[in-house]
Specification:
The chain is mostly helical. The chain contains 7 helices and 3 strands. Strands 1-2-3 form a 3-stranded antiparallel sheet. Helix 2 crosses helix 3.
Length: 158
């Protein structure tokens, strides 16, 4: 049998050339090691610029600089800086206007990004200016984000 592989939206698909059978392998869609962080960050910044979120209160100047800094220096990034980047993306995921955009761009690491909501008890990495950052607003933002994310990523319940 002659097989060839084609990429279809981050999924590897084997095509049996003789029978025209398609077998979709979803492992790359959920494999955290398959993500190209630089491209995902570039696409996120592009969306932010395209929808003028950077000029509004949706994205803070600090968050914008963290994303931009990673794109410029991705090869020299240290573990501490990578954690800061992932915390920043996790914080942006709580914004309803960016939730689905980020979920799509960072789908392989979405579970990690959501888990950071539970791990961040201190406000030193949280730069969310669009919210009065008290317990009630955080719970509301998390609940709202889950309402958008669970239909597309039910694995978040586990």
């Amino acid at each position: 049998m002659a097989f060839k592989e084609v990429m279809l939206s981050n999924n590897i698909m084997e095509v049996d050339a003789e029978k025209e059978n398609y077998t979709l392998h979803e492992f790359s869609l959920y494999d955290p090691l398959s993500i190209d962080m630089k491209t995902a960050c570039q696409n996120l910044l592009s969306e932010i610029n395209q929808q003028n979120f950077s000029s509004s209160s949706v994205v803070t100047k600090g968050q914008y600089e963290i994303l931009n800094s990673y794109i410029i220096n991705d090869t020299n990034y240290e573990k501490k800086s990578t954690n800061k980047l992932l915390d920043c993306i996790s914080d942006l995921l709580l914004n309803p206007s960016l939730t689905l955009i980020i979920a799509n761009l960072f789908r392989p690491i979405l579970i990690d990004l959501v888990s950071r909501w539970l791990l961040s008890n201190d406000n030193d990495t949280m730069e969310i200016d669009y919210v009065d950052y008290d317990v009630v607003s955080k719970v509301e933002n998390v609940a709202n984000a889950f309402s958008l994310l669970l239909p597309i990523k039910p694995q978040l319940l586990r």
